[in-house]
Design a protein that fits this description.
Layout lengths: L4 H10 L1 E4 L3 E7 L7 E4 L7 H18 L7 E7 L8 H15 L16
Parallel strand pairs: 3-4
Antiparallel strand pairs: 1-2, 2-4
Helix pairs in contact: 2-3
């Protein structure tokens, strides 16, 4: 996991950004932070309860598919306002679409890209 502010800032500044309606994904191919992931939910999303729920949703989406993600990447997943009203399946669908566009999944993995088949 990414925990330190300087690690987050490094990925924010040097990484590529991909976004859809629900999520923002920062991707950085790096040796020093490889295989690490961070989750963020800004104060604009709501109170602490809402932000913590968003981060739990993001962690669960990542957990379900972490074996299919290339190991040389550092990722940051950021929730946007629409995630606050989404179910886990809707968030997972948004994550898979964004991950596919960003190219974070391994080519040799037999990824179960259908929601609910994990």
């Amino acid at each position: 996991m990414l925990k330190e502010r300087r690690d987050f800032q490094h990925v924010y500044k040097k990484g590529k950004t991909y976004a859809n309606h629900s999520l923002v994904l920062y991707v950085l191919e790096t040796e020093e932070l490889k295989g690490r992931v961070g989750f963020a939910a800004g104060k604009k999303l709501g109170c602490a309860v809402v932000r913590n729920r968003v981060k739990r949703l993001l962690r669960e989406c990542y957990r379900l598919h972490q074996g299919d993600i290339r190991e040389s990447l550092a990722l940051i997943l950021v929730g946007r306002k629409p995630v606050t009203g989404q179910s886990c399946q809707e968030t997972e669908k948004a994550f898979l679409a964004l991950g596919k566009r960003a190219g974070i999944f391994r080519e040799d993995a037999t990824v179960k890209r259908q929601v609910g088949q994990s």
